[in-house]
Fold these 4 entries.
Entry 1:
Amino acid sequence: MAPRSLAAIALLLTLAACGTTAEAGPTGPVGSELALPFDVYRLGHADESRIKQAQSLLVLRCMRSRGLEISLPDSVTAPGPLDLSPNMRRYGVLDDATALRYGYHFPKTADEAASSREIQNWSSKLTDQQRAALYTEDGKPGCADQADTDIAKDVPDGDGDFLTSQDFDSLDESAKNADVVRAKASWQECMASAGFHYADPKAAISDPQWDLDSATVPRVEVDTARADVRCKESSRLVSVWHDVEVSQQHQVIEREAAQFERLETDKRTRLANADRILAG
């Protein structure tokens, strides 16, 4: 599938955040207590579901207006781990049970795994005519792209980029805090004593020997992830880092109050547009 196709279909359907077919059990999410001030400016799972329903309806109408019928894969309606706990992997793997079962792989619910397979199967069966109508080609907006534009009516361009940029900056800047640096050094020493040599948790989870797209989780990955969790606990890295980020994000919101107020307005506008579309 072309990269553009993947980008557009993500506007319509709920896709899992990371590529692994490992399926999560019914247990609750870990890290749900790691809320951050920026979170309130993002769409929650229920809000995203409303928007995706509206987008799907727009796509169907648009395709019919072009003389084409198309069926769309079902969206995942039950929230997955990342939906329930958006920050669950912000600081890496957080609990031993997850590390034991998945290593550094990202767990999917059975619904998410099935939906990913369904989307790939659906996309592979699109005709050339359907694909050309769905996605932008030669400057002509496709139905999927037009649906996103309609949802974003009256929302200024670039606001989403602002929040994304601030979010990355928040993680990077908080990592430089003296307390966080000390906690990471303690984590590093703990890992080294267990035979694992990494500069920080990001280096551990990004180790190129891990194939995080594979359904198989090797024992060495599990052992490393479990040591990672133990060292996070002994160093108090996660709690220290989270506390610093909370403080820094509050400062950013206060400093950029007008921009964040506009983000809140934009969020309400998108939801109002979705509700209007769904109401017919």
Note: Residues 102 and 217 are 6 Å apart (CA to CA).
Entry 2:
Amino acid sequence: MSQPESEPPSRGAIAAADHDLSDAEFAELDALLADIPEPLEPLDVVMLDGFLCGVIVQPTLPEVDAWLPFVFDAGGHRWGEAEPSPEQRRARTLILRRHAALNRAIAEFGTFDPFILEVDDEGEVAERGDGEDVDSQPVRTAADEVSADPAAPLDPIGAALLPWVAGFEQAIRLLPGLAELDEPAVQTTLARLFRFLPDDEEGTAALVARELPLASLGDAIDDIVACVAELYELTLPLRYKVDAVRRSSPKVGRNEPCPCGSGRKFKQCHGAAAPP
């Protein structure tokens, strides 16, 4: 994964726990998720990456326990016994590190490096979407499910991006706050992202694809990164909005009689500073 060349001036060195995952750690996390026993249906690392972005751009800050169980199973069912196993703890650590790294990159730099794997003509993973070679360690992706789905897009751009966008859509369905916003810019940006999913009855995805054609996988990756950054900016005022305090009674002036009925001024009674 590529890292920004320099830190923003407002931040010092990044703690080790805040560093993004290495290629080996991505492979380790994917193996941990792949080993989750049936009937649970976990995400793979490509879908997980889109899912985490869908969590980050929500208009409210969801608690971890509101979305993390759905990484391990599409239905949110518990993985394992009540006491977490070492594998569960390790998976949670890696997932939260990736979530923190994505959130930090989007918030501070307005961009991020999505984990997207290019699929060649034979269905093999060729290289990561940013052009870096993938480690020799096998990494399971959703490419098999995509190629087996008759409704999946046949072009290599769509085949590569479908798993990531499907993970993003899963987060949007789980946490509907973003999709329910009555904001045309949000809906337009979501349509740009969802053009890589199987088309709906209205042909929305095909319409967007015709109006905004993409020449290469690199252009498509740049576009989904831009969409996520735009959604983050659109929801930023809502995410950190603090409701104004509403008083049930009019504010009492310091020189007015205290409401307690003592006959003294408010500043000399209940409005007086508390003793140290």
Note: The domain at 16-239 is CATH 1.20.120.740 (Four Helix Bundle (Hemerythrin (Met), subunit A)).
Entry 3:
Amino acid sequence: MRFRLTAFGLHLLGSACALSLVLGGLWLGWYHWPGWFLTGVTHVLWIVPVVDLVIGPALTLIIANPAKPRRELTRDIAMIATVQLVALSYGAATLWQGRPLYYAYSSDRLELVQASDLHADEIALARQQRSDLAPHWYSRVRWVWAALPENPDEAAKIVNGTLFGKGQDVIDMPRYFRPWTDGLTLLRKNLQPIGDIRYVSRNGKARLAARMQRMGLAAGERNAMIMWGNGKPLVAIFDPQSAQIRAILKGD
């Protein structure tokens, strides 16, 4: 039994180190709050640890028989490790493809922009026209202002395409992105009191107001804006004067 437990412990330690390295790097680089919530990646984050930290070491505990020939034992453990690596690679690839690249202010809301949202031709145009805000494979999450182009015809084309589902929204066109600070004056004008925020239930607004009071934030001021991703929205609370984000809270 001691042999089995030693093999189990070593396998669990190796799996935990590999998982922590991969998921920890993705979390620190792209998925820290509010990234993991807005992307809705919880299902992936559950599958990978179950395979790598539960099933894999448990199988090693079962098959680790000191009477088994070393060559056969090595082969069996290698097969288990291969399945684990496949699961870890799947999870890492899924998270990489859907990693947050921007939190974009557009019109009256904040929106998550993931790597999977951007087409290759738009990325190429962004690199040609605005290299400082264009996405690259190494890009970390950035806050930007997704402003409509100054040309009224181009702006109308984007708006109409979005409304009728025949074109991309401006948040999917990084060539039009501008620095976050450039949009703060307009953003301040579109802030709302918690009670006026749409897409949040009445009970949700009451909970938000109570939490804001506990945090020392004024619930009756025009200081809130909805923040969209995949699934339930969040609510960003700003300082009305400086437009600095004070908190990002769950709506419901």
Note: The longest helix spans residues 2-31.
Entry 4:
Amino acid sequence: MAEAVQRNFGDHLRWWRKRRGLSQLELAGVAGTSQRHLSFLESGRATPSPQMVIGLAAALNVSLRQQNAFLQSAGYAAVWREGRLGAPELAQVDAALDHILAQQEPFPAFVVDRHWNLTRANGGAVRLVEFVLGAVPAGPVNLADALLSPSVMRPYVVNWKEVALHFIRGVQADAIADASPEASALLARLLSYEGMRELSHSAALEEAPRPLLPIHLRKGETSLRVFTTIATLGTPQDITVQEIRIESFFPMDELTAEFFHKSRA
């Protein structure tokens, strides 16, 4: 059993090292160990301590979720908790998120998890969705699906190909970094939408990129141009906290700013 656990960890370590494009010598240097010891760990000839497991996982720049997987592959218990928003232990996080959403008013802001599932939104976000779609969708909402699906936001995004290309490349990068079945499943689902696989293989659409890519929305005679920022919470020591993203929308012209201010009145 011990030998099987060691081989499992060694295979896991080797897989991530190669995924990061590192030699044994390079990883050993970053992790503060010797190439010889790292070779023994990968072959199962040496057993890592929990501290060595965490050190190697950190050197490979994997998430807290993946650090737990590293520990479990070596036969140790997971150390990083996965809290739940709304639970007492994450009360300060909830308060911070509510503050950020309120401060963004009247402009939209969304909180999503690592797979773009919506967890909360401010009033500006609700008003924007109601304006574009007529009503807020019932049930769980995934912002990635909403943007890329032909039946939701796509008909209202004037420069949809530009926006979709930028977004799907971000999801592809997330899937490579995360290397989880869930991330791969999300990417596969998004690429299954009409035109997405072909678009993902295309080159950049602009020879001289602008400083920011606008999202140009149009419904009837109303035209809105916004850009977004993505924020995360610093120094996370909880899986849920690390995976939270706050996407905030900002107007790119006076007419768009005026629309959001008036919609709040």
Note: The beta strands are 109-112, 118-121, 215-219, 222-231, 245-251.
